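One record is kept unedited as follows:
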Amino acid sequence: MNWMNSEAFTLFGQHIIWSDMTGNILGLITLALGWRRSLWTWPVQFLSGLVLFAAFYGHLTGSAGKQAVVMAVALYGWWQWRRSDDRSADGHITPRFATWPERAAMLAAAAAGTVAVALLFTAYPELSWDPWPDAYIFVGTVVAMYAQAKGMVEFWFAWLLVDLVGVPLNFANGYAFSGFVYVIYGALVLWGMRDWWLRSRRGPQPALEGAPA
């Protein structure tokens, strides 16, 4: 898979590599599908992780390991949405706000996870190119995906917090395409947040028997 780490093209003086471009395009599609509450968001998320895992495996062990975790969470999300009984009239999952205990648990997990992963990255520099912000983005991504798997509106807020660090960090480290994609992520996050917020206020509205979905 060495070709995936080769240059695809140059944009505004920045060298765009195939793995960075492919993985992040799939990530954008994943977020758009998540906005639509489509079950397909999880297979595409898994595929995105698989592409990046293949690109990093044997070259950047830490990055490959992070993608393996992302793929595992994607499988969990698929399982959660498949088994959910809380569906709206269109057959898709019904968004909801997290309870205060759930919010506290996610914040605690994010804080503890970021510290633990950052210390791991610091102890083994080969695992990361910038331990603390990299740990923040990685743990934030996992927390966001978990909240999405549970149908929580808060998953959009988690993505927004990840974006605030991800955009400047990717540009600073030469991952220009990731930086551009994170900017688009920001716009999708705001639109998706609004849509899920409104839907959560309406509550589930079961379809009438015999009516089209």
The CA atoms of residues 111 and 142 lie 12 Å apart. The chain has a mean pLDDT of 80.
